Amino acid sequence: MTTKQTKRVAHVLRNRKIYTEVTGNIIWWTSEQRGQYTVLNNYILGAIDPDPVNQPTTLTTQSTYETIDHVVKHCRLFRGPLSVAVYAPGDDFPLAINLIYFLREQCSPINRCIYLHVTWHIVYDSEHPPYYDAVGVSGSSITFPENYVGSFDCKHDINVNVKIQSIYGDQMTTSIQMSSNDITTTTKTTTSSNTIIWWTRQTRGLYTVLNNYIPADLDHYDQLDTSVTMTTQGTYSFIHHIEHQCQRWEGPISMAVYAPGDEFALAINLIYYMKQCSNPCVRTRTTWHLVYDTLYSPARPAGGAVNTSFPDSYLIAFNCSESYQQIIDKFNISQNSSQTFRSVHKLTYPINVCRNVARLNAKTRYVSAIDSELYPSGGLVSGFVKLMERERNISRNYPVVYVMPIFEVDESVAEAPTNKSELSKLMAKGKAVFFHHYTCDSCQSFPNRKQWLNYKPKTNDSLGIFLITQRTRMMTYWEPLYIGTNNEPWYDERINWDGKLDKMTHMIEMCLLGYRLAILDNAFLVHAPGIKRSGRQNDQVFIVVFPNAKLYNTVSSQILPNN
């Protein structure tokens, strides 16, 4: 069967599951003729049906038994549902089935990905049907694929070829070698016939986006309702905050990094430095997306051509004894704000593009768009999941999101508070204030906030709702950060960070849609130590403040009703 024909089978069947009851047995797969070939559609199912809303893209691919192990890397790096058509005529059929089941054994998180998200279709020449007399099964029954599965244990390094030959006899002559070591590898490889690209490229207005460019080591598809994804963003100078965030945030993190031109390679190296040299949560739970101006594409790697296919092609030599700043210094990046790549080319920071990119790539139902310098209180994710279990029993006729109050602490505070008791002590000493207290106090002024401070939760890890309110005219400048879903409005990508007002139209739209804001009683965010005071802003901000304000007025007029 040609590669083109096999690919077509995988594509057509990517989301189809048909159940037929025959003589008391449920047959989940269907058989069809495609020219000279027989196709067993959905012969071995993934445990989870693809979700067309939260996982709209399915990777369709094909193989023979020799290349089935490539699906491990596809599943690990694509991070979504897969539909795989395997060409396996005659004697190859039982061998292919056993290799598939070997991959499905749950011996590592990667195997769990295969078990949950990969659906397999088998294709063979009608003139060369499967070899049937396998493992004591006689006749011409292919009803249940398990009939062909022999005995093996992937908890030990084994040569699958030897094991399967011992089951089927000497007629099984193949050179395939695969062990559990191969399954646990995270190396991104290419072969002469198959280049595995796990990320996707997207154009959003003036910007190019590389989605899932550097993925987390662990998959989070099985945490749809049992976790919350923090979605955050920043430039290379904010990447180091991710360690503080992930140590407090118990769920996955999706971070979009804006890195035009020369800053691209620097950002890649800082990300890999954090993955290798900081807390393991950065490596296991943080997925990175890169954003750059299409007119200012990544600079060439040292001695090479422009090639964004593999991020590690941009890496330079470094070790964990070096500091974060030493890595930056290797790139001769000017520390003068007027001499950076962005400043020289007068590029504004597309914060709302980055916010939306990070949100779009979340794999959980609940998400929280948090800026990179904000650190969450401890136990927030687990407490919120328990709260949602209780909320399911409550019927509300309006949409609601769950707000976390925001604070700043003095730079003399060694570590931001992790619970309300610690926060209250700092507030009493004047070492903590509400966010933007000295620059825009109304921006974080919510109803009864003094009572919120005095409210004492039953325990440090309990979480409930303090009050439910709306963003009324009296709170025009309130910019709450919240936990919600991707059903909430997106951020307007025409508005950038440099001119401020970047979240205001978002809140106007939510207000018009009737959203209620449920303020959490025992969860909060704390800005990295250092309280902001009023002072002169840099020239770059002044250049874009007026255009941004004008654009804000235009966007607001488009959202607000005429009357």
Helices and strands in order:
Layout: H1 3-12, E1 20-22, E2 25-27, E3 30-34, E4 37-44, E5 59-63, H2 70-78, E6 82-87, H3 92-104, H4 109-117, E7 118-125, H5 160-168, H6 180-183, E8 200-204, E9 207-214, E10 228-234, H7 241-248, E11 253-258, H8 263-277, H9 280-285, E12 286-293, H10 324-329, H11 341-344, H12 351-360, E13 366-369, E14 374-376, H13 380-391, E15 400-404, E16 406-409, H14 420-428, E17 432-434, H15 449-454, E18 465-469, E19 481-485, H16 504-512, E20 516-520, E21 525-527, H17 539-559
Parallel strand pairs: 5-6, 6-7, 10-11, 10-13, 11-12, 15-20, 16-21
Antiparallel strand pairs: 1-2, 3-4, 4-7, 8-9, 9-12, 13-19, 14-21, 15-19, 16-17, 18-20
Polypeptide structure, described:
This protein is of the alpha/beta class. The protein contains 17 helices and 21 strands. It folds into 3 domains: 3-183, no CATH class; 199-372, no CATH class; 374-563, no CATH class. It is 28% helix and 19% strand. The strands form 4 sheets. Strands 8-9-12-11-10-13-19-15-20-18 form a 10-stranded mixed β-sheet. Strands 3-4-7-6-5 form a 5-stranded mixed β-sheet. The radius of gyration is 27 Å and the shape is globular. The termini are far apart. Residues 7-24, 133-140, 155-194 and 536-546 have low confidence and may be disordered.
